[in-house]
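Dear colleagues,

I hope this message finds you well. In preparation for our joint manuscript, I am sending the AAA family ATPase (Clostridium algidicarnis) sequence together with its predicted structure, so that both groups work from identical material. I would be grateful if you could confirm receipt.
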Amino acid sequence: MGKVISLINLKGGVGKTTTTVALAEFLTLEKRKKVLVIDLDPQTNATVMLINQDAWKRANDNKRTIHQMFLDKLNDTDYFDIYKSIIKGVSSIGGGIPDLHLLPSSIDLLDVQDRIPMINQMNSFAQSPITVLANYLTQQIIDEYDYILIDCPPNLGVITLNGIYLSDYYLIPVVADILSTYGIPQIKDRINKVSVNIKSINRSYNIKPLGIVITKYRMQSRMHRETRDDLILRSKLAETDKRSVPQVFKVYVKETTRISEATDIDVQINTLKQKYGYSQEVYDAYENITNEFIRRVK
Ligand SMILES: Nc1ncnc2c1ncn2[C@@H]1O[C@H](COP(=O)(O)OP(=O)(O)O)[C@@H](O)[C@H]1O
Ligand SMILES: [Mg+2]
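The corresponding structure tokens are as follows:
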């Protein structure tokens, strides 16, 4: 059974997309897993890290992005075809990784996102604005993969809830500072509340926190060290405690100046080692996080 994991934080710039792509590449190349990345963010960063701009333009012109998926529901049209829209063999590594697939986003989503909450396909909750993706991403498609990673926009709006609705787990990437960790209890609360509603129509629904991944970590920064220690302490509190947060992944990804070069799709690379091995520490961190990820997703 394919496992679905949403990557969420209320703040941008905390490494959601970088973590999504790195996990996808390590899971496919090092662990021989089959992975689908779904880019739900209108910023389309995961999309442009995994396919080049020409490929994106083609997908967008052919109505093969999640923009069209939502637009169809708004306009009562039927152009979007999920099978045709999933792009196989994506990534800058080796000209594309056969077992890494992408359902791309589009910046055009910005034009429709404010209207998505008005989608009211019929009147049961099962057909609400938060189940649009689920109507297309059938269990059959999910089960073609080991993992489906959903890169969410930096909010808990209705687009993100489409990811939550389908997810077995959510993972929270953070920078160890006040702004990017402040919203963690809000994320927990909101997801818990939404889950109660979803469970009332789908009894097997059971989303769980997978943990917190610390990215862009600066050992020299007192703020980073203190925030990390605070997160670790809070992760040990009882779940009912308002201050409690999900478990913190053991290894952190350090801040490095080289990572943004490695995210350029037009820089063709042959191996995982070449892409991430500019720093053995970064490579080891992603490898460790991937191992911990596999252990936690059961
Ligand atoms: N470990 C890191 N060190 C330095 N820069 C990083 C690191 N991880 C990510 N970045 C950079 O930080 C920026 C934000 O990361 P991104 O993954 O796009 O965040 P989000 O998806 O949460 O907005 C990007 O420019 C990315 O290249
Ligand atoms: Mg992003």
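For the figure legend, we might mention the following. The longest strand covers residues 208-215. DSSP finds 15 helices and six strands in the chain.

With kind regards,
E.M.
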